[in-house]
Design a protein that fits this description.
CATH topology: P1 Nuclease
Shape: globular
CATH class: Mainly Alpha
Number of strands: 0
CATH architecture: Orthogonal Bundle
Number of domains: 1
Strand content: under 5%
């Protein structure tokens, strides 16, 4: 089964970005939505996580845009590499359990005669960036006053925020990512994806609201935890389609009065995005405590 590449266009900000978002069903949450989730996750972290990290909302929120900004038609090599990092078309994998490492996954796709750029690689982008943050946190523990290491931790956190937010948007976990796919597996491009993406922004949700009374916990098995989160999102695919008539219109300038069901769904997905991302941050921090660094490394 062959699917077309799902990303299209350079992602902008504000009113001008709407037409691009409508053409880009690989986007999950509008740009401000990703930043709100990132800032909310930092606010939800316990005090054991260093203050330099918990207080980095402006930078981490800024960086959370970048994986979409980089899907630019003017940088085709980068765009081709970046696009699959945002989703998993789960049905293409025919019920096979996913291996824990990226290249074992590529081998599985080869066995299934599935192009991994069609199936998507988001479980690996989340796992890998969490482990990058873990290594950076281990460096911080050894050199706690090194500002370059602190900036590196914040950078990794911003990129991770984007992919973690992506998988909490249900239509990033299915071939039905923009309308119910037909027998050929292709999306009809109905526009539901962009409308669902807009919820966090159109509801004007705030980081404090999404972080309130959250209790993130470290994930014992990182990859298993990522896959569990994907299953959590997949359980809401049907609900996403049930809500289609109540979602914001594609035209950003068209008036929309949020109804209770759409509001409830947007808040639930926003809070789950914050909880999951904060749990990834906390996992990286806790795992960094006993992570060995090379003996030759000096900072």
């Amino acid at each position: 089964m062959t699917l077309s590449i799902r990303a299209a266009g350079l992602i902008g900000v504000g009113a001008a970005c709407l037409s691009l978002l409508a053409a880009n069903p690989s986007q999950a949450w509008w740009p401000k939505g990703h930043a709100v989730i990132a800032r909310g996750a930092l606010k939800a972290l316990p005090a054991e996580v260093p203050a330099f990290f918990r207080g980095a909302g402006e930078l981490v929120g800024h960086l959370s845009y970048d994986p979409d900004v980089q899907k630019n038609r003017a940088t085709p090599t980068l765009r081709a590499a970046e696009d699959p990092e945002h989703y998993l078309d789960f049905e293409l994998l025919q019920g096979k359990p996913l291996p824990k490492t990226r290249y074992d996954y590529y081998r599985l796709c080869s066995q299934l005669k599935v192009d991994p750029t069609n199936a998507g690689t988001v479980p690996y982008s989340i796992t890998e960036w969490t482990e990058k943050l873990t290594v950076a946190f281990a460096e911080h523990r050894k050199w706690p006053t090194n500002m370059s290491i602190q900036t590196k931790c914040q950078f990794y956190a911003g990129i991770l925020a984007h992919y973690a937010g992506d998988v909490c948007m249900p239509l990033h976990t299915t071939i039905h990512f923009d309308g119910r796919a037909g027998a050929d597996g292709k999306s009809p491009r109905s526009g539901i994806h962009a409308r669902l993406d807009s919820l966090i922004e159109r509801l004007d949700l705030k980081p404090e609201q999404l972080a309130m009374q959250q209790k993130p916990a470290a994930i014992p098995d990182l990859f298993a935890g990522v896959m569990a989160q994907i299953e959590n999102s997949r359980s809401r695919i049907d609900r996403s389609y049930e809500l289609e008539p109540r979602l914001p219109p594609q035209n950003e300038r068209e008036a929309w009065t949020p109804n209770p069901e759409a509001r409830e769904f947007g808040i639930e997905r926003g809070r789950e995005s914050v909880r999951f991302l904060a749990s990834l941050y906390l996992t990286a921090w806790k795992n960094s405590e006993k992570l060995p660094l090379p003996s030759w490394l000096q900072r």
